[in-house]
Amino acid sequence: MTSISGQSQLNMATSPPQFFAFGPYKISEKEVFYSTSLSYAVVNLRPLVPGHILYSGFCVVCLAREVKRFVDLTADETSDLWLTAQKVGNKIEHYHEASSLTITIQDGPQAGQTVPHVHIHILPRKVGDFEKNDEIYDALDEKEAELKQKLDLDKERKDRSPEEMEQEAAEYQKLFL
């Protein structure tokens, strides 16, 4: 993985497996494709619309420290999180030959946040990917609701296998070399 400074943070070939926290869930380092000392980007377990352009482009930028609400971030965390989202979004948009991005944060349960950990959704967009542009938000809400219903996410990885997610993360890691 690479940090904003371009320095390698983990040697995955020789290091024992590492995990990142995403609320109560463990995320394998092999699913993380970019990190800094304060945040990381991970491929999404539950793609928005299978078979859709967003299927493989949907990613999440998370704060490294587990913080439930955006208002509780430090100035450095806020800056790093958004700079990471900007850098990742740029690379993902170009990789998927998209023309736009939907960047969203759901801050608190009434806003649709189902994982109590500050994170930003990044979705590459193309002309006509949804019949009505704002349908993306309904699709996000639907997927978030499905995720919330799962009692043990680590046992319910049926949308994509860890191998599929690792393969996608490895492709995205190349964008930051």
Automatic annotation (TrEMBL):
Composition-biased stretches (Basic and acidic residues): 151-163
Name of the protein described by the UniProt record: Bis(5'-adenosyl)-triphosphatase
Motif Histidine triad motif positions after renumbering to this chain: 117-121
Keyword entries, A-Z: Hydrolase, Nucleotide-binding
PROSITE patterns: HIT_1, HIT_2
Residue ranges constituting the HIT domain according to the UniProt record: 19-132
Region entry Disordered, spans: 151-177
UniProt cofactor(s): Mn(2+)
Active site positions, chain numbering: 119
Gene Ontology molecular function, alphabetical: adenylylsulfatase activity; bis(5'-adenosyl)-triphosphatase activity; nucleotide binding
Record EC number: 3.6.1.29
Coiled-coil ranges per UniProt: none
Chain positions recorded as substrate binding sites: 44, 106, 112-115, 121
Organism, as annotated: Stephania japonica
Sites annotated Important for induction of apoptosis: 137
Entries under SUPFAM superfamilies matching the protein: HIT-like (SSF54197)
